[in-house]
Structures are given as C-alpha cells and as structure tokens.
C-alpha cells in the first residue's frame, strides 16, 4: 500500500498492493495503522455507495458543523474526483486537487475534513464507495458551485453541461460560502 500526498498535501492518494492470480485479485483497501501514519488518527463511522451514469456530476459538498473526512474509491467505472480546500487559515485555501479514480488503478483518495468534495463520471456508469469520519447531517450540508470561475476546476467534461441534482445546480460561489474557521 503506497501513500502519495497531492499538491494540497493533506489530500492523499492511496495505491493498494494488488495480488493477482488465476482466480482474480486480492487487495487490502484500508489498514488503520498505515492510514493513521500517513493521513491522521481518524475514525470512520459511515460507509456509502452511490451509482451514477456517464456525465453526472455530484458535488461539491461539505458539512460545516460536522465536517466529514472521506476515503473514496471507485469499484466500477471511472470518475474525476475533486477536493477543494475550504480551511480559511490554510495556505491552499480555495485551491483544488483532482485525480482520476477507476476500477483499474484501484486508487483511493483521502479528502480530510475541511474540504468540499465532488466527482464527475467519465465511464458509462460508476460505482463510488467511501468511508466517512462523521455522519450525514442534511441540515448542515452546503454546496459549493462546481463551475465557480474562482475555483477554475479543470473538469474533464464530455459535454458542455454535466447532469446534476437541483441542489447541486444551485450551489454557491466560494465568495458567498461560509467556510471553515470564518
Ligand atoms: C450523502 C447521503 C445521502 N443520503 C440520502 C439523501 C438523499 O435522499 C439521497 C441522495 O443524496 P444526495 O443527492 O445528497 O447524494 P450525493 O449527491 O451522492 O451526495 C454525496 O455527494 C458526494 C460528492 C459527497 O462528497 C458525499 O459526501 C455526499 O454529499 O440519499 C443519505 O441518506 N445519507 C447520506 O450520507
């Protein structure tokens, strides 16, 4: 299992060691001791699984009072996964990092609390599974607008308009968002 910090160093990509044989493959997808060493001493309390069609964009989501760290991966298909730093005191506040996650590279991405998170589906369908460090709290959920020009996220769009929920279409610009540490 390898850990790689991205341009925002608290966001970490994890590459599991994959053991392939005539039956298929085996890999460990989470190991607490290594996770703590490279990402921090977090505990996970909720696991999620969503399925999306090509061209869907989910996000960018964050919870303000109950921030969630998310350990995400794709078990079928391919997505472009994005984390935006919303920690006001951070030198990378307002910056984003993105990574292509798919069923072949089997990478996981650690998105710490204090970040907005979203993804865009590149394959025909994608199964997206993730562990969260806090519970879903709908009253606390905020949506940062995926297309905010100040963020300038380089989404690998397959068509001009991604398919999105009504909630996500009405996300807020970063300049109007309440962020962490304000
Ligand atoms: C996220 C979530 C949703 N739900 C319910 C609420 C709603 O009826 C339905 C669909 O919810 P949403 O439209 O918010 O699902 P979705 O857009 O997939 O939300 C997710 O997006 C990605 C980008 C994230 O980062 C996640 O943390 C989460 O916010 O599922 C739960 O019961 N528990 C949960 O943890």
From TrEMBL:
Q: Does the keyword Lyase apply?
A: no
Q: Which UniProt keywords apply?
A: Isomerase
Q: What is a single Pfam family found in this protein's UniProt entry?
A: dTDP_sugar_isom
Q: Could you say which EC number(s) this protein's record lists?
A: 5.1.3.13
What's an example GO BP annotation here? dTDP-rhamnose biosynthetic process
Annotated site, Participates in a stacking interaction with the thymidine ring of dTDP-4-oxo-6-deoxyglucose, chain positions: 136
| Catalyzed chemical reaction(s) | dTDP-4-dehydro-6-deoxy-alpha-D-glucose = dTDP-4-dehydro-beta-L-rhamnose
- The answer to whether the entry has keyword Isomerase is yes
Catalytic residues at: 61 (proton acceptor), 130 (proton donor)
Alphabetically, the GO molecular function entries are: dTDP-4-dehydrorhamnose 3,5-epimerase activity
Gene3D superfamilies per the UniProt record, alphabetical: Jelly Rolls
| Known role | Catalyzes the epimerization of the C3' and C5'positions of dTDP-6-deoxy-D-xylo-4-hexulose, forming dTDP-6-deoxy-L-lyxo-4-hexulose.
Q: How does it assemble?
A: Homodimer.
Of which family is this protein a member? Belongs to the dTDP-4-dehydrorhamnose 3,5-epimerase family.
**PANTHER family in UniProt:** DTDP-6-DEOXY-D-GLUCOSE-3,5 EPIMERASE, THYMIDINE DIPHOSPHO-4-KETO-RHAMNOSE 3,5-EPIMERASE
Name assigned to this protein:
dTDP-4-dehydrorhamnose 3,5-epimerase
């Amino acid at each position: 299992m390898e850990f790689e910090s991205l341009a925002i160093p608290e966001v970490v990509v994890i590459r599991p060691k994959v053991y392939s044989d005539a039956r298929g493959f085996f890999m460990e997808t989470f190991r607490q001791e290594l996770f703590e060493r490279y990402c921090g001493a977090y505990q996970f309390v909720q696991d999620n699984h969503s399925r999306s069609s090509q061209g869907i964009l989910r996000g960018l989501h964050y919870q303000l009072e109950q921030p969630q760290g998310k350990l995400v991966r794709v078990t079928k298909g391919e997505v472009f996964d994005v984390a935006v730093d919303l920690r006001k005191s951070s030198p990378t506040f307002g910056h984003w990092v993105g990574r292509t996650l798919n069923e072949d590279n089997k990478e996981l991405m650690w998105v710490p609390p204090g970040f907005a998170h979203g993804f865009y589906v590149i394959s025909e369908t994608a199964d997206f599974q993730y562990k969260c460090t806090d519970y879903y709290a709908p009253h606390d959920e905020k949506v940062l607008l995926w297309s905010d020009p100040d963020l300038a996220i380089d989404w690998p769009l397959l068509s001009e308009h991604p398919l999105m929920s009504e909630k996500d279409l009405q996300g807020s610009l970063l300049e109007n968002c309440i962020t962490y540490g304000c």
